[in-house]
Amino acid sequence: MKIKLLLLIPFLLMMTSSSDETYFWGQNGHRVTGKIAEKHLTRKTKKCIDKILKGQSLAFVSTYADEIKSDRKYRDYNVWHYVNMDLDQTYEQAEKNPQGDLVQGIEKCIAVLKDDNSADEDKVFHLKMLVHLVGDLHQPMHIGRKEDKGGNDVQVQWFGNGSNLHRVWDTNMIADWNMSYIELAENADDLSKKQIEFIEEGSVVDWVNEVHEVTKEVYKSVKVGENLRYNYSYDHFGTVRTQLQKGGIRLAKVLNDIYD
Q: Coiled-coil region(s) at which residues (predicted)?
């Protein structure tokens, strides 16, 4: 009996991990976005954020929205992490989830933070959520198809181990690059002021529609059951790095618009 139980434990852990990993960048990805954002904040914005977060960095709080998933009282916020869209649709055309979505979550966070009457604890909560959600927006599989849960049901292998398309883009490629979030942030592309301003242009909905174009390419990049290895990372890790950097720049833009 003990032997059967021991054999069952790895399977249960795998199932739990698969469920917990639905709809989020891995921890390092979010921290990279938070760290990059800090480089683009104005002095006034930094001061306001430091006051709200009591000295905690954007990188540190960037994973908060995933950490609270283990608490049932925050379950209603799970829908804020993604948008389901058919590949031939824009956000404006897609059927909206009545319970909320990534765009609505970001808009709610911004509204709370702009409201001078918001309670301090609400500002802390929604600032932490905002940092995370803008990161999620730039992970292409957060704007994926409903029928496969943003690639979570697209089963593939990563170097011979079971994975899925969502996890490959969330975690596998970043983890296998074997750099800390600080190293990844410090090695982001050197962009001109004009390039940064171009990335900052547009609304949250515009950014969703832009990332959705990347989503289409990600779906085309694999076959179900395919064993993804070095070539896949070589071909696509540059896109991961670009999305992390855009997420950081745009997070700073949103925060500067709120506080500056």
A: none
Q: Per-residue b/e over 203-240, b at no fewer than 16 CB within 10 Å?
A: ebeebbbebbebbeebbebbeeeeebeeebbeebeebb
Residue type, 202: G
Our CA dihedral for 96, 102, 108, 114, rounded to 10 degrees, sits at -140
Neighbouring C-alpha atoms within 13 Å toward the C-beta of 91: 20
Question: One-letter amino acid identity for 84?
Answer: N
Distance CA 252, CA 49 (A): 11
Q: What is the mean pLDDT of each run of 10 residues along the chain (260 residues)?
A: 41 37 68 98 98 98 96 97 97 97 98 98 98 98 97 98 97 95 97 98 98 98 98 98 98 97
Angle at 36 between CA 33 and CA 38, to 5 degrees: 110
Q: Within the chain, where are the H helices?
A: 2-20, 27-39, 43-53, 58-61, 64-67, 102-114, 120-137, 165-167, 173-177, 181-186, 193-200, 204-220, 230-259
Strand partners, 158: 161, 228
How many C-beta atoms surround the C-beta of residue 123 within 10 A?
A: 18
Report the relative pairing of strands 161-164 and 155-158 from DSSP bridges.
Answer: antiparallel
pTM for the predicted model, two decimal places: 0.90
